[in-house]
Design a protein that fits this description.
By secondary structure, the chain is mainly alpha-helical. The chain folds into two domains: 40 residues, no CATH class; 64 residues. It has five helices and no strands. α4 runs antiparallel to α5. Pfam families: DUF3040 (PF11239).
Length: 118
């Protein structure tokens, strides 16, 4: 095992280890400086900036659009086909057609007004 202050051979092969400041490119440093300036001007700004390792708004909208399509479209449609219930067939057809179109923008509006704190 190597001492902690000496990087291993694996680290030398990574592209981010070529930078002296721990893998931050000039663009990353410029972005961090910009965010720092905005944070100083408006302390609420830091809460609204997404971190790259967490779910972003687009990912949340896609996930909820998929879940809504399954719950409001595919499941009623499948049950309606099996039971030949016209109400479930209609609900399933409408849910399958409109859930992927309607849910993501609605989630986007909600997220733009109430930014999650995770």
């Amino acid at each position: 095992m190597q001492p902690p202050d000496r990087p291993s051979d694996e680290d030398d092969q990574r592209p981010e280890s070529a930078h002296a400041d721990g893998g931050r490119t000039p663009v990353d440093r410029a972005f961090a400086a910009l965010v720092g300036t905005l944070r100083a001007a408006d302390p609420r700004f830091a809460r609204r900036v997404s971190e790259p390792r967490r779910l972003r708004s687009g990912q949340i909208m896609t996930l909820l659009g998929f879940v809504a399509t399954v719950l409001l479209g595919l499941i009623p449609l499948t049950v309606g086909i099996q039971t030949q219930a016209a109400v479930l067939l209609t609900l399933g057809a409408i849910g399958t057609a409109f859930s992927p179109v309607v849910v993501p923008p609605v989630v986007g509006v909600v997220l733009s007004r109430v930014r999650p704190l995770w």
